[in-house]
Design brief:
The protein is an alpha+beta fold. The longest helix has 19 residues. The chain starts with a strand and ends with a strand.
Length: 336
Amino acid sequence: MIQYKVSLKSLNTFGIDAIADSYALIQSTDDISQILEKHGEKELLILGGGSNILLTKDFNGLVLKNDIQGFRIVEESEVDVVVEAGAGMNWHQFVMRCIDCNYGGLENLSLIPGNVGASPMQNIGAYGVEIKDVFTYLDAYHIKEKKSKRFYFDDCKFGYRESIFKNELKGEYLICRVAFRLSKKHTVKTSYGAIEDELESMGINHPTIKNVSQAVINIRQSKLPDPNKIGNAGSFFKNPIVSMELLEKLQNKYPDIPHYPAPDHKVKLAAGWLIEQSGWKGKTYDNRYGVHKLQALVLVNYKDAKGDEILALSSQIIKDVQQKFNVSLEREVNII
């Protein structure tokens, strides 16, 4: 059922008040085909959890809210299991269900906002793990051709916070279901970030996947604002990947600059550190919006900010980091 002139404020984690010309809830592939037949050639926006977008204006088209649910075992052996989930399922709830079943591989990705369908699109990652590490396949619906297609690993062209769905096929498909190969005999990853320190403070010497998940949750809750209380989209910028040559130049001036190995003999820098060193951490405008006081990577909407105000703030941050470090920041959030 299509609704008209619908506020999207409660459907994006930034809490930006924008109006959709028309809106429909999708709970199956049948819903997609029926609604698309009615909507004509209007511009289309697909919403999942609304956690990775910044709305800068009203949307003069059709918004499809992806609410496809489901959780099933596709195949299982003594060592692993393939789990398929509906794209509209809340990501953290999905991770918790897998951990309750003792399926490992997603524990480092606990408490990431959004829905399952966004995970391969963004190739979401945290604490040394990315979706591509456990991805098996996804089923998606081609909006113009009105038919479904299955994408396997090589089809998706995963990169750092990238996939084919953010580039060549952007806006062409609606992701319906995603399948992941998870372990039943676990090897936990604890070396990235502050996980080991947090486990130690928890008194854990031999961590389970549930222990690692709880450590990640504790860390994220300690430094990231809850979008239910303060509007935000999590990390607003990607961590930039630079050459070893540039890193060496920066180390001469900033010996303590955080850096991590990246493919092709490059290194990944911490965008939050660069932003903080540029003087932006905790900066606010009229007590309405600004940069979070505990994590400079997160831009926040305290009260009734406009999307274009937050976009302008991000542009100024990009400019200042470029001038100070000769490093180009790239937005992780989709600008609408």
